[in-house]
């Protein structure tokens, strides 16, 4: 079956530090890959996505590249802000499969301190 | 509406009672999903609707859980004889039709607490 593994948190950083959250997946075929973010007290929001190998998704200074050879989709940001404190979820959906239900990783809590 | 809405935002109930959770998807979105977010299990898929039918119910944890969708719009998730392990945040998401439209849009969730 499909599965997503991401690094456990919490990750605590200082403002302007570099952030990496590792994500690897297991899936049949070529899934679409997503990063969702959940800010304190808010719902899940799509942060970025990539639908095929070597695609790079980017948004709000975050980037992730779809690496088929390593089955990974690591999230990076060069300079984090306090407002980036949130829980980040890596997820996949098997494109073209009936339903396209999402399989999520366990989530990584990130805390950015001023 | 502008986004997916869910009601109630919070629900506290006693063990053994039935609860109904409501989801209003984004207008025109034919696909609708229910997920559950709990401390022990993370984010889990429950059920998927395409229109009013549910071709994938594989995530429903027991026969106490059921869901329906009417008019291709509003969906209700019902939990009968609630147990303490049902305590979680129940999330609804919707997606436009079409294979290339794979992004799901989530509502704010309903936090269910079973005492």
What is the strand and helix layout of this fold?
The complex is a heterodimer of chains A (114) and B (115).
Chain A: E1 3-6, E2 11-14, E3 19-21, E4 23-26, E5 32-38, E6 44-50, E7 56-59, E8 62-65, E9 75-77, E10 86-93, E11 103-104, E12 108-113
Parallel strand pairs in A: 2-12
Antiparallel strand pairs in A: 1-4, 3-9, 5-6, 5-10, 7-8, 8-9, 10-11, 10-12
Chain B: E1 5-7, E2 10-13, E3 19-24, E4 31-38, E5 42-50, E6 53-56, E7 65-69, E8 75-79, E9 88-95, E10 105-106, E11 110-114
Parallel strand pairs in B: 2-11
Antiparallel strand pairs in B: 1-3, 3-8, 4-5, 4-9, 5-6, 7-8, 9-10, 9-11
What does this structure look like?
The complex is a heterodimer of chains A (114) and B (115). The mean pLDDT of chain A is 93. Chain A has 114 residues and is mainly β. Chain A contains no helices and twelve strands. In chain A, strands 2, 5, 6, 10, 11 and 12 form a six-stranded mixed sheet that branches. Chain A has a four-stranded antiparallel sheet with strand order 3-9-8-7, with no helix packed on it. Chain A has a two-stranded antiparallel sheet with strand order 1-4. In chain B, the strands form two sheets. In chain B, strands 2, 4, 5, 6, 9, 10 and 11 form a seven-stranded mixed sheet that branches. A four-stranded antiparallel sheet of chain B has the order 1-3-8-7, with no helix packed on it. Chains A and B meet through strand 5, strand 6, strand 10 and strand 11 of A and strand 4, strand 5, strand 9 and strand 10 of B.
**Radius of gyration of chain A from the CA trace?**
14 Å
Strand count of chain A: 12
Structural class of chain A: mainly beta
Distance N to C terminus of chain A:
41 Å
Which key phrases capture this entry?
heterodimer, A: 114 residues, mainly beta, 6-stranded mixed β-sheet, B: mainly beta, 4-stranded antiparallel β-sheet, 11 strands, globular
